[in-house]
């Protein structure tokens, strides 16, 4: 069958003159969980936005289920990066989730009892039913993230784009979200997730897309998530990436290897975004503080030791 | 003053003007809520100031005072100002706030020069253009009031019909666009409606202060509620109260322009909101902080007492 949920062909995007993404082409098979990886500023969010038609592209084409985005957007759900909105907006959690139904309502029509019911169900799915009436600025970061996720579920799409849904989420919530994503996959849906924690990639994703201004590689996790590709993606900076790609079952290994595990997970986290997830901490049983400065520490200093 | 107030209410012309101010206040409060939430408050102010040269040029070209013509003039110059702001932020390193400042003062400067010129020319005095600076509701003709009321009513109706769309576009335009909403169109419409609200209120409130009628009610309303629907309605009420109060007081005290009084009325409601609103207000905050501090101190001293008794019991360690 020749119909892919997402086909990106020669996509080029520029904000000013310099292209942020140049000639990116890849295809996503149906019913898979796909990780989009790359360092900060690699253009991951930009790619999502370009695919969704939120920003103009310089060249290339995007096909969703073989059609243009315009024709198929009801099949698409989107979880933006949490920082993209002002959380002090006067609205509550349930109301935000109901926004996911607006596309189905069309112009002028107001959300009614049916939309409210669907929104409540979606909130319950992400474990936020008790917070339905809570003003959104009074939710924690992780809870806000879950509200966004519930809103995407309310869209009832077949292809989902999620920009860092695990950002600032604790280990339990991350587990809950990932099992939700697996559930979506079981229903035959395709989910594209921008992700930073390299140590969980093998466990979570069927496929990966590696980005760094251009496409480094795309394909099944097994074949694509290799040390060589990661070095190309993140620059030669991370000698320890090997550990991430080699460990087939990371959490077991981490427990056994004892002494070296904190350093490894630290490196893996620096490769991505420091403080993005506390999953590794919990799995390794080591408490690494979620300090933002982590990202600024020269990587060489770590790899040398 | 009391008798003049009564005289006011009895005068059918003034009843019209009050009704117009009421509708203007509601309309400005409602549309201003969206302007404020989209962080475009300063934009409203810039648009108001940019209207002045438009009004003057319309008068100089046509030589008559007609509110419809003035509206057209100020909408055109408001649009030119918007383009100017966009161009400056796009083609230079100047940020939007600075661009707004530049456009606002340049347009206002041009407006004041033109107005002075008109004032010194032959038919300047009967133009009544000076009233546009700070507003004089009492000087409005019945047709002007009618126009103001109808346009305000239209603004309110459009906000009611497109409430869901305006809400999503104000909260998360990226998501709205991904969903297929015509975000660009809706944003243009909101901006256009802001211009209209500003322009239609100019004669009553004046170029200099009309933006306050747009923003202050919205800011005050935000203190009382966490629901957009309630906020919009409340802002409408506050706007209406300010508009009517301004018109009444300025009408009864001779020669006091309407704008400043309206703004003072709105500001007094803002102060009440900022101080007394539940949850977000100053009093509520101070009270909450004091209570938490007290609770923490209590539990700490309890803990300390327990520790002390433990050390006494257990000796060392
Ligand atoms: N609105 C914008 N205007 C100009 N440049 C931008 C804009 N948004 C992003 N960029 C630039 O484009 C590049 C890619 O940004 P993008 O947000 O796509 O990165 P990302 O891969 O999502 O990073 P992160 O992991 O930090 O979220 C960056 O270099 C950034 O500076
Ligand atoms: Mg990003």
Automatic annotation (TrEMBL), chain A:
PANTHER family: IRON TRANSPORT SYSTEM ATP-BINDING PROTEIN HI_0361-RELATED, METAL TRANSPORT SYSTEM ATP-BINDING PROTEIN TM_0124-RELATED. The gene is mntB. PROSITE patterns: ABC_TRANSPORTER_1, ABC_TRANSPORTER_2. Gene3D superfamilies: P-loop containing nucleotide triphosphate hydrolases. It comes from the Bacteria. The keyword Protease does not apply. Keywords: ATP-binding, Nucleotide-binding, Transport. The keyword Amino-acid biosynthesis does not apply. This is Manganese transport system ATP-binding protein MntB. Residues 263-273 have a biased composition (Basic residues). Residues 246-305 are annotated as: Disordered. Belongs to the ABC transporter superfamily. InterPro entries: AAA+_ATPase (IPR003593), ABC_transporter-like_ATP-bd (IPR003439), ABC_transporter-like_CS (IPR017871), Metal_Ion_Import_ABC (IPR050153), P-loop_NTPase (IPR027417). It comes from Paenibacillus aceti. Residues 6-238 form the ABC transporter domain. Pfam families: ABC_tran. GO terms for molecular function: ATP binding.
From TrEMBL, chain B:
Its main location: membrane. It is found in: Cell membrane. Keywords: Cell membrane, Membrane, Transmembrane, Transmembrane helix, Transport. The chain crosses the membrane at residues 16-37, 67-86, 98-116, 145-163, 189-216, 228-249, 261-283. It holds the Pfam family ABC-3. The keyword Transport applies. It comes from the Bacteria. CDD domains: TM_ABC_iron-siderophores_like. It is a multi-pass membrane protein. InterPro entries: ABC_BtuC-like, ABC_TroCD. Belongs to the ABC-3 integral membrane protein family. This is Manganese ABC transporter. It comes from Paenibacillus aceti. The lineage of its organism: Bacteria, Bacillati, Bacillota, Bacilli, Bacillales.
